[in-house]
Write a structure and sequence with these properties.
Blueprint: H1 16-21, E1 26-30, H2 31-35, E2 41-45, E3 50-65, E4 68-80, E5 86-90, E6 95-102, H3 113-117, H4 119-123, E7 126-129, E8 150-151, E9 159-161, H5 189-201, H6 208-233, H7 238-254, H8 261-268, H9 272-283, H10 287-305, H11 310-316, H12 322-333, H13 337-348
Parallel strand pairs: 4-9
Antiparallel strand pairs: 1-6, 2-5, 3-4, 3-5, 3-6, 4-7, 7-8
Helix pairs in contact: 5-6, 7-9, 10-12, 10-13, 11-12
Length: 349
């Protein structure tokens, strides 16, 4: 499913123009609704303004994320931040859903308290094993390495499996019922909110947009809590999680100042090797790459959502000159700032 980045199409679920005009856009659909007519194959593409969550129950899935293939078996949640190149090959008759949320629904400013609680979800795509234990909680499958959740930007291809109750019942409206309380996944908060999102989505109430936005935020918060709880229950690096939370907070504070990795480790009172190990363990990224991706993300946001010139953006983000900013941007994105903005503007026409 791999292809050159410059040729990867950029899609909105129903067109980027619609998403731009509807900042509260939230959509949910079953995997079969779109994939069955396409031979269960979704070719690599990316969404510039959508955050997506794919959930598959008791199935086989080949997923490509930022050119890295992954083979999954069982029940999984895959999170896909805006801008991430992704493609899927499903087993025929796969059961699951895709939740799509406009990026504008999810606050990503350091001033927003909520954004700090879901930061891991929009920093990098995640593979999250989904299993219901006897008590109805959620835990990582025992045969999945150390039981960790996976941040998968740079992970090699691998075969993984989860074991879960099948969600194969059919709702009265003809859609596959989302597994949840009383349907094979008792007390799973994320799937509970997804059920509520589906109900709200199918009823056109006057306050539908506000309800969908609030429920989506609660669903992502529940998913973030699941990430943290899985790590605590499996003993997989609670100390590292705290370290990375402090690191991300410092990045938010100092990325415009272009702090070096050494400056961050000094502020955190850890060695460079300790920070590097934790970043690779949780994000499959180096500390330097995380810092650069934060700069790149802010540059892309300003190119799309503001009329600042390239020179103004370079100055705002702390680059010593426009030429250096242009080289930095092209190296990471594969296009110049001007080309990126022109492509975004074309999508809005």
């Amino acid at each position: 499913m791999q292809r050159d980045k410059a040729t990867v199409p950029v899609y909105g679920l129903y067109g980027e123009q619609l998403i731009s005009s509807d900042p509260g856009f939230v959509h949910i659909e079953d995997i079969a609704d779109r994939s069955s007519d396409l031979g269960w194959l979704i070719k690599p593409h990316r969404h510039s303004k959508l955050f997506q969550v794919l959930c598959i129950f008791d199935g086989q899935l080949e997923v490509e994320l930022n050119r890295k293939p992954h083979a999954l078996s069982g029940s999984w949640i895959v999170t896909i931040p805006a801008g991430v190149v992704h493609g899927f090959r499903f087993q025929p008759n796969s059961n699951g859903f895709v939740l799509s949320i406009a990026s504008s629904v999810i606050p990503q400013s350091k001033e927003e308290e909520y954004s700090r609680h879901i930061e891991e979800l929009y920093i990098a795509p995640q593979l999250i094993p989904l299993t219901a234990d006897a008590a109805g909680g959620v835990q990582a499958p025992a045969n999945h390495g150390a039981g960790r959740n996976e941040s998968i930007k740079e992970n090699p291809a691998r075969e993984s499996s989860g074991h879960a109750s099948s969600g194969d019942s059919i709702a009265e409206n003809g859609h596959a019922a989302t597994p949840g309380p009383g349907n094979g996944w008792p007390q799973n908060p994320f799937l509970h909110y997804v059920q509520l999102i589906r109900q709200e989505f199918e009823n056109f109430n006057a306050d539908r947009e506000q309800a969908l936005a609030l429920l989506s935020k609660l669903a992502l918060l529940a998913l973030s809590r699941q990430l943290q709880q899985n790590r605590i229950e499996t003993g997989s690096g609670h100390k590292d999680s705290l370290l990375l939370s402090r690191f991300r907070a410092l990045v938010e504070e100092h990325y415009r100042a272009h702090w070096s990795v050494t400056q961050y480790t000094q502020a955190l009172h850890v060695s460079p090797s300790t920070l590097s190990r934790a970043c690779h363990e949780y994000f499959a990224e180096s500390p330097k790459s995380i810092i650069q991706q934060r700069l790149l993300g802010e540059a892309k946001r300003r190119l799309v959502y503001t009329r600042q010139s390239n020179e103004e953006i370079a100055y705002t983000l702390g680059f010593k000159d426009h030429a250096y900013f242009a080289r930095f941007f092209k190296k990471l994105e594969g296009a110049t700032p001007g080309e990126y903005r022109k492509r975004a503007d074309t999508l809005h026409d």
